[in-house]
């Protein structure tokens, strides 16, 4: 027989519902504000004060100006290159490193892990990092956003822990059948670690998509700017007005307000659309990689 919840338990549950509802509103409202503002009439939006609960009028002029800007399309292309190629590098090298470190037969495994974990807490600093990247010829190249960030130590540890949780008997059986390390990795370890692979794709993908700081440091050629760096220019350097070609000065001032919001939506929506497909693996993969087997 089930026990009825006590008054204190009911109050606790009600408090949780209220708190989580408020937290959801605080989280969702900024996104809704930007979405409503991006399709609002520019003049009405400039005159509006306070919170925004619906579009003020309806206009897609800001989106038309965004997609007519060649820098936006160029930034999309550069970002997609960095995300796709970067993910290939990230997943491959992280998987190889995690598999090697998860093998109990690896010599000096503990000292190697000590040196790897050391990099999570100490680094040479930004200036030595810049000169290193420049010295190997990656400066002013999209490869400067990919190769120096090929392996994230935290992600490496998560995947290593996931591999260690897989029973040794599977590896032993594969070796009896003549499988080498590459066969074991690609046919046993990775298929059994798909939730963790999905988490790695999300971590690395979001990191590449949102990256702008290193692009600002290493890239001088504006044609190589990723989308987030183009967005930074529009938001912080007042370049939104330059996108409204052929408009009067007053129209440019009004349109620049909605242009900023439209650009944010254009830069954010793709990653939001990808997340629901990976979300079902996210919690499971993160837990599997965080618990030592």
TrEMBL record:
GO terms for biological process: transmembrane transport. InterPro entries: MetI-like (IPR000515), MetI-like_sf (IPR035906). Belongs to the binding-protein-dependent transport system permease family. It comes from the Bacteria. It holds the Pfam family BPD_transp_1. The keyword Transmembrane helix applies. This is Sugar ABC transporter permease. One of its GO terms (cellular component) is plasma membrane. It comes from Paenibacillus elgii. CDD domains: TM_PBP2. Residues 76-270 form the ABC transmembrane type-1 domain. The chain crosses the membrane at residues 12-36, 80-100, 112-131, 143-163, 184-206, 259-278. Keywords: Cell membrane, Membrane, Transmembrane, Transmembrane helix, Transport. Its main location: membrane. It is a multi-pass membrane protein. It is found in: Cell membrane.
């Amino acid at each position: 027989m089930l026990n009825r919840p006590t008054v204190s338990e009911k109050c606790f549950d009600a408090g949780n519902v209220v708190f989580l509802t408020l937290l959801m509103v605080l989280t969702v409202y900024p996104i809704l504000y930007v979405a409503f503002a991006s399709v609002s009439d520019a003049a009405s939006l400039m005159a509006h004060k306070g919170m925004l609960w619906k579009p003020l009028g309806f206009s897609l002029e800001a989106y038309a100006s965004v997609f007519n800007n060649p820098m936006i399309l160029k930034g999309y292309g550069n970002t997609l290159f960095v995300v796709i190629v970067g993910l290939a590098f990230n997943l491959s090298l992280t998987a190889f490193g995690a598999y090697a470190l998860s093998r109990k037969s690896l010599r000096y495994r503990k000292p190697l892990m000590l040196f790897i974990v050391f990099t999570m807490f100490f680094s040479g600093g930004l200036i030595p990092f810049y000169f290193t990247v420049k010295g190997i010829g990656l400066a002013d190249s999209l490869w400067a956003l990919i190769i120096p960030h090929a392996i994230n130590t935290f992600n490496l540890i998560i995947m290593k822990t996931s591999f260690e949780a897989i029973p040794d008997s599977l590896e032993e059986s594969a070796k009896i059948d003549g499988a080498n390390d590459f066969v074991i990795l690609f046919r046993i370890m990775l298929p059994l670690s798909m939730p963790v692979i999905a988490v790695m794709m999300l971590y690395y993908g979001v990191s590449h998509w949102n990256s702008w700081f290193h692009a600002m440091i290493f890239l001088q050629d504006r044609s190589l700017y990723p989308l987030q760096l183009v967005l930074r220019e529009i938001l912080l350097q007042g370049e939104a007005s330059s996108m409204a070609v052929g408009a009067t000065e007053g129209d440019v001032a009004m349109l620049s307000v909605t242009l900023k919001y439209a650009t944010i939506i254009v830069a954010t929506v793709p990653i939001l659309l990808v997340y629901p497909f990976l979300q079902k693996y996210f919690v499971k993969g993160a837990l599997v990689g965080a618990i030592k087997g």
